[in-house]
Here is the input.
Amino acid sequence: PFKELLKREEKKELTLKSIIMLNKPMQIILADDDEDDRMFFSDAIDEIKMNTITKLFNDGVELMNYLKQAD
Here is the structure.
């Protein structure tokens, strides 16, 4: 089980490195009913200076509606 976990973590790290190296935007989705939390999250993402596409939703219902439309 530990080796499988380690392999999964290595794969995640490799994927993140690939995204960064290819300069592809990382897509981040956040659903949070607290406006302040969404603002803090958005500000933190802006500070890391990474190429990201961030989508913020007021709640899970909005997020699910967005995901259904994406199909």
